[in-house]
Design a protein that fits this description.
Layout lengths: L1 E2 L3 H13 L8 E2 L2 H9 L16 E3 L8 H9 L9 E5 L4 H9 L4 E4 L4 H18 L8
Parallel strand pairs: 1-2, 1-3, 3-4, 4-5
């Protein structure tokens, strides 16, 4: 799942996933409320099959309606979602953003690179680790 409000960054991420040959459906939420609605089957996602949960959440911090730290706090606070790996993928280099992310149990914090080739390489490595090597409890994969 990608939680990203910037259409250019969303497109870049989806292109990088494709270029990295990561075979995966990617749900996209463009704000924090939409992300939680998707995860909990509410709002426009009411009735969604909640047995199909993301294997990974790529979470931007600067989001409309609800920021990424609040999304992370709510994901970690709910039994259904607390074990889903969350990688904060943001342009922020602020120490406080990093501290807050880890304080709320982010699995990783990665600053978005500006260079496309570097971005693709990071996405390839993220996909290889989190979607292929990393093991998750049953029901999350």
């Amino acid at each position: 799942m990608l939680v990203e409000d910037n259409p250019d960054d969303e497109l870049l991420m989806l292109m990088a996933l494709k270029d990295s040959n990561i075979e995966s459906e990617t749900a996209v939420a463009r704000d924090g409320v939409e992300a939680l609605d998707f995860l909990f089957g509410e709002g426009k996602h009411a009735g969604r099959d909640l047995s199909r949960m993301p294997s990974l959440i790529l979470l931007d911090l600067k989001l409309p309606k609800m920021n990424g730290i609040e999304v992370l706090r709510r994901v970690r606070g709910h039994e259904r979602t607390r074990l889903i790996p969350v990688v904060v993928l943001t342009s922020s280099s602020r120490d406080q953003d990093m501290i807050d992310s880890y304080k709320h149990c982010a699995n990783s914090y990665i600053q978005k690179p500006l260079d496309f080739d570097t971005f693709v390489d990071i996405v390839r490595q993220l996909g290889a680790y989190w979607l292929e090597l990393n093991k998750l409890p049953g029901g999350l994969r």
